[in-house]
Amino acid sequence: MKEFWTSLASLMGVFAFFQSILHAVFPPELRFAAAKIFNRVFRCFSTYCYFDITEIDGVNTNELYHAVQLYLSRSASIAASRLSLSRGLNSSAFTFGLTNNDRLVDTFRGATATWEHAVTQRQSQSFSWRPLPEEKRSFTLRIKKKDKPLILPAYLDHIMETATELRRRNQDRLLYTNSRGGSMESRGFPWESVPFKHPSTFDTLAMDPSRKELIMADLKDFAEGKAFYEKTGRAWKRGYLLYGPPGTGKSSMIAAMANYLGYDIYDLELTEVHTNSELRKLLMKTTSKSIIVIEDIDCSVNLTNRISKKSAPPSDPPSDLRPVGAAEDGAASKTITLSGLLNFTDGLWSCCGSERIFVFTTNHIEKLDPALVRSGRMDMHINMSYCSFAALKILMKNYLSVEDGEFDDANELLRELAEVIEEAEITPADVSEVLIKNRRREKSEALAELLEVLKTRVEKRKDKKQSSSEEMEEEEEQEKRALESPKESDQVMDSCNGKEEKGEEGVV
Ligand SMILES: Nc1ncnc2c1ncn2[C@@H]1O[C@H](COP(=O)(O)OP(=O)(O)OP(=O)(O)O)[C@@H](O)[C@H]1O
Ligand SMILES: [Mg+2]
């Protein structure tokens, strides 16, 4: 310790000596230049090396400067005592920054990096087509010379990646749509966007917790799977098919996925796409870390034509190559085809960009072409089914703030609800409606009301079943009767024939 103070004192002595020489020997106008030279000499003997990262690189904005700013803002909020604060356009988070001459120490792969932020007045405005800011801002990175080969350029790559991730997390999600009704070529960019504010999350999504966890784990695995996809040579994309009756939460699931991963959503309106090449262009203009959604795929495109094709003449092209809806008018090039759609998700073009998720939804999985649902095409098929008791518990928590264990297991109301919920075949959307209507009442009253609704549904379903089975029985009975008394019908036939014969005879 003593040695440290001795060397520090001698260093300060040397510094003071040079300072006094500077003042004694050089006139004030040359002092700045001389100081710079001394500085350089010092740096030659220093064990450190320095990197200046200016805000404006020539006349262009230096991306690295902003990346460093964002990167340091993570730790600046903890380490520094005076900070600058900002909030970017479209951003929902505040960003901390270092103020003038503030320092921050960071470590990377065991090496220490010291950052200093400098703000100086721009001396004279040199000619520029673009007006430059009055202040000159820069970061100076100081690292030990021996660490240089160890951490550069990996450290800078790390900074850029972290900053991109932070920017994405701070930025609001965007929801893009291609359904503007006009020609998409007219404005160059085929997608229009709005901030995506859907509040659905996996916490609020009513479905069995075990299935939910499976989906979340799958999504996480995908988002963190860059190395895996690179190693295995697979395109970094994943497909989910959500199917189930209306109101079971397919759209809510998509919103929850986007919020969970922090991805943007591209809601593709297939009916607005006229050709396969338009579809490809749309795909090319999507960004990484996004979910591309085609809702109600069974209604968007006629995907049943492959089946209907079996009865068509053999000279026709295979149905999946045939333009959808263009068979009669021959406008083949003016439509999209099933193969175009499959290429969209699976072909080479689907890999331009990376980290993308495709989600198709349908209410009628049985109506989809087998090519679309065959294994491997969509990586995961998710059945969004009617409300189970586990899902009901989540809805009770969402709408009535009923916490786990608030009603004990022996509670009569809960027991009855658990008994009838599956039989009632009610969608989470319908349960939500009942709970919303009754949310201001006592919790037990609201649940009792729900129980009534469920019981009525069960009764109705039973009646319907009863009447349809009665109808079926009656039909069967009629068929049986018809089979058992062939003579009667023969007689009718005979009598008809008889009449005809008579007539003929009469004619003759
Ligand atoms: N599983 C669920 N969890 C939470 N809320 C749900 C769920 N399912 C439906 N809801 C509620 O019902 C509403 C409609 O649900 P959603 O639009 O997600 O259903 P959908 O399956 O996409 O229906 P459709 O097939 O008609 O498009 C949502 O706003 C949400 O409040
Ligand atoms: Mg929907």
Low-confidence stretches: 182-186, 304-332, 488-508
- Domains counted in the coordinates: how many? 3
Strand order of the largest sheet: 10-9-12-13-14-11-15
In DSSP terms, counting alpha (H) and pi (I) runs of 4 or more, how many helices?
18
Count of distinct strands: 15
Query: Would you give the CATH topology of the largest domain?
Result: Rossmann fold
Helix content: 40-55%
Ligands, ions, cofactors: adenosine-5'-triphosphate, magnesium ion
- Span between N and C termini? 138 Å
**What form results from the Cα inertia axes?**
elongated
Strand fraction equals: 15-25%
Name of the CATH architecture of the largest domain? 3-Layer(aba) Sandwich
* Gyration radius over CA: 36 Å
Sheet with most strands:
7 strands, mixed
Overall mean confidence score, pLDDT: 78
Cofactor: Mg(2+)
Pfam families: AAA, AAA_assoc, AAA_lid_At3g28540
GO molecular function: ATP binding; ATP hydrolysis activity
Region (Disordered): 459-508
SSE topology:
Layout: H1 2-25, H2 28-45, E1 48-54, E2 56-57, E3 60-61, H3 63-79, E4 83-86, E5 95-98, E6 103-108, E7 111-121, E8 135-144, H4 148-151, H5 154-170, E9 174-177, E10 192-195, H6 209-223, H7 226-232, E11 237-243, H8 250-261, E12 264-267, H9 276-284, E13 290-294, H10 297-300, H11 305-308, H12 338-346, E14 356-362, H13 370-373, E15 380-383, H14 389-400, H15 412-424, H16 428-437, H17 443-484, H18 486-507
Parallel strand pairs: 9-12, 11-14, 11-15, 12-13, 13-14
Antiparallel strand pairs: 1-8, 2-3, 4-5, 6-7, 7-8, 9-10
Helix pairs in contact: 3-5, 14-16, 15-17
